[in-house]
Amino acid sequence: MKTRAAVAFEAKKPLEIVELDLEGPKDGEVLVEIMATGICHTDAYTLDGLDSEGLFPSVLGHEGAGIVREVGKGVTSVKPGDHVIPLYTPECRQCKSCLSGKTNLCTAIRATQGKGVMPDGTSRFSYKGQTIFHYMGCSTFSNFTVLPEISVAKIREDAPFDKSCYIGCGVTTGVGAVTNTAKVEAGDNIIVFGLGGIGLNVLQAARMVGANKIIGVDINNDKEEWGRKYGMTHFVNPNEIEGDIVQHLVELTDGGAEYTFDCTGNTVVMRQALEACHRGWGVSIVIGVAEAGKEIATRPFQLVTGRVWKGTAFGGAKGRTDVPKIVDWYMNGKIEIDSMITHTLTLEEINKGFDLMHEGKSIRSVVVY
Ligand code: NAD
Ligand code: AHE
Ligand code: ZN
């Protein structure tokens, strides 16, 4: 079949809207009509050539929602007509990682996914006979896409696609970092570095669990008003304080925060986040994705004296199990999404979504097909 898609033909070039050829689902795969997709900073990072796994030409996008239109042989958990959210972190429930109960990082198809192909080693997308790679196992910047059955979460049918798509990455990542990875408790002080599409979701989850001081750090002053909407109690712009940012934050939290979250992808900020943790028990969670070649550093003494450095992918969520529950949280009003979607675009306008992100003018742009 044919599908309209925004293709990344080369790094650092705008996406091009073209009609691709798409092969149907093979055994264990499903064809999904994507109804809406968010644009996450990770898509921009890959398009900018900063991802060591980045492949071109490819169909980016990993924050979608849609409807199953066809299933391949052996598919039992979904059927045509089901509403689904594609998962860049699948949940096979059979691999060593899934069975361990210790992680959400299913390893069933990670190797092929990282090479931009389906589990059988081939791509379903092509353009004028040339292979086009999949991205993060999702490729939601295409109106139709093929996914492994283990990479879709079935969701309730009354959830609007143009909002629930955000649960495919940003919402689950930010909320899950608080509830699954950090397990923030009522009364804890937390600090969030980077108040974008992920950081604001960390804030709203911290408010939800009853955190005490909820401190937001951003170099863009426009983010203060945004942060306050989702429970931020204090705002700090590191460029506008006197002296050292870490010392400032440690004083503000009477010795450091229980939990800090990096939502910038900047390795200098990651160090500040670790060092702003409380001596003896503070935990810093790396959410931001750093560019290829970057490394983190701190004095080992920071760890010797009880600070803990952790990371999280997809907020530690097990997609097929947890995503439907997060959709319920949204539909029941426990978490907010609508007000974070600042721009709704057509596929033809998708590059504008990237521009708005780089200019700091959007929280989330969503493309509706
Ligand atoms: P975004 O562009 O919406 O927000 C980033 C925010 O960081 C902006 O408000 C920006 O002003 C701020 N910022 C930039 N440099 C800063 C600095 N030096 N100090 C303080 N603030 C600074 O991006 P997003 O969509 O929220 O994504 C944030 C990060 O999370 C990205 O690195 C993205 O790739 C990553 N991410 C990771 C996961 C995961 O599973 N671990 C999931 C989604 C996104
Ligand atoms: N491919 C990069 C790393 C990119 C990365 O860390 N991705 C996150 C999700 S970001 C979503 O916006 C993730 O899930 N990582 C775990 C995984 O298995 O990819 C690189 O450095 O190679
Ligand atoms: Zn993302």
Features of the shown structure:
alpha/beta, seven-stranded mixed β-sheet, binds nicotinamide-adenine-dinucleotide, Rossmann fold, Quinone Oxidoreductase, Chain A, domain 1, ADH_Zn_CS, S-(hydroxymethyl)glutathione dehydrogenase (NADP+) activity, alcohol dehydrogenase (NAD+) activity, NAD, 17 strands, 369 residues, binds ligand AHE, single chain, 2 domains, six-stranded parallel β-sheet, 26% helix, globular, NAD(P)-bd_dom_sf, binds zinc ion
How is this structure best described in words?
With 369 residues, this protein is α/β, with parallel strands linked by helices. The protein folds into two domains: 2-168 and 337-368, Quinone Oxidoreductase, Chain A, domain 1, CATH 3.90.180; 174-312, Rossmann fold. It is built from twelve helices and 17 strands. It has helices spanning 41-47, 96-100, 110-114, 161-164, 170-182, 199-208, 223-229, 245-252, 267-275, 300-304, 319-331, 350-358; strands at 2-7, 16-22, 29-38, 64-71, 83-86, 125-127, 130-132, 144-148, 152-155, 190-193, 214-217, 234-236, 259-262, 283-286, 308-311, 341-345, 364-368. Strands 3, 4, 5, 8, 9, 16 and 17 form a seven-stranded mixed beta sheet that branches. The longest helix has 13 residues, at 170-182. It is globular. The mean pLDDT is 98. It binds nicotinamide-adenine-dinucleotide, ligand AHE and zinc ion (ZN).
